[in-house]
Amino acid sequence: SSFLFAQPNSWVPAGPYGVNVNNGAYAIQSPITQLAGHESFPQMLVAATQYGEIYKSQDGGQTWENQSLSLGTSRPISALEISPTQPNIIFMGSQSRLFKSIDGGASWSTILQIDNLRINEILVHPNNQDVLVSSAKGLFRSTNHGQNWTKLDEAHYFDIAQSPTNPNECYFLKKAFNSAPLQLIQSTDFGTTLTE
Predict the structure, then answer these.
(1) CB 90 within 8 A of CB 80
(2) Which residues of 115-150 are buried (b: 16+ CB within 10 A; e: fewer)?
(3) CB 120 within 8 A of CB 136
(4) 34 near 48, Cβ under 8 Å?
(5) Does residue 125 contact residue 167 with C-beta atoms inside 8 Å?
(6) Cα end-to-end span (Å), the chain
(7) Judging by beta carbons within 10 Å of its beta carbon (0-12, 13-18, 19+), is residue 170 exposed, middle or buried?
(8) What is the pLDDT along the chain (196 residues), one digit of tens a residue?
(9) Which of 9, 19, 41, 164 is the most buried (most CB within 10 A)?
(10) How far apart are CA 48 and CA 93, in angstroms?
(11) SS3 state at 53
């Protein structure tokens, strides 16, 4: 789906437009997979697409700029997160790689790469540089905005939810193996310890 503005009694398409797909052709409108904003900069929006592209708007979605022409991936973007403390730092994940930008999306580097990683969600702590990543290859944590990573669990992790009153309290959906039921996991120390 594309990004839509709410207007009285209607929805208005707001882009982004002109998606560069694999064969060099241009679609009319991008199929968005992720959308992220920042509380301190309400006009800033970052959109990720099915074609592995990142678009950024500085005017609330009126105009968009492609931030991923040199990214080198055509895989759908499955997770996107802006650092609450440093809005120029953006994380995004695709099939096998986790990317990071430190300049608001102008350039990107790979900070985690594992075959079939399949990143599901990225959560950045609002008060420090801790980052959690849930994926098909486990739950990962960084304490320095992605420079180094620790695998907390080998199981398949899906959603991450954070308490609105305690940022260290998180909840995870975990699947130990393919035929196992989903488990709800809790942490009160941002993933250092995990309890069922």
Answers:
(1) yes
(2) eebbbbbbbbbeeebbbbbbbbbbbbbbbebbeebe
(3) yes
(4) yes
(5) yes
(6) 35
(7) buried
(8) 445 555 566 777 777 875 554 555 555 567 888 999 999 998 999 999 888 888 999 998 888 888 877 676 778 899 999 999 999 999 999 888 999 999 998 889 999 999 988 999 999 999 999 999 999 999 999 999 999 999 999 999 999 999 999 999 999 999 987 777 899 999 999 999 999 8
(9) 19
(10) 10
(11) coil
Using the structure block, give the residue that is written with the tokens 């809790």.
186
Report the alpha-carbon distance of residue 176 to residue 174 in Å, rounded. 6
pTM of the complete model: 0.85
Determine the length of the chain: 196
Q: What is the amino acid identity at position 119?
A: I
Can you read off the two tokens belonging to residue 109? 């580097």
| Peptide bond between residue 16 and the one before it cis (omega within 30 degrees of 0) | yes
SS3 annotation, 106-169: CCCEEEEECCCCCEEEEEECCCCCCEEEEECCEEEEECCCCCCCEEEECCEEEEEEECCCCCCC
H-run or E-run covering 6: strand 4-7
| Residue given tokens 């998606």 in the structure block | 19
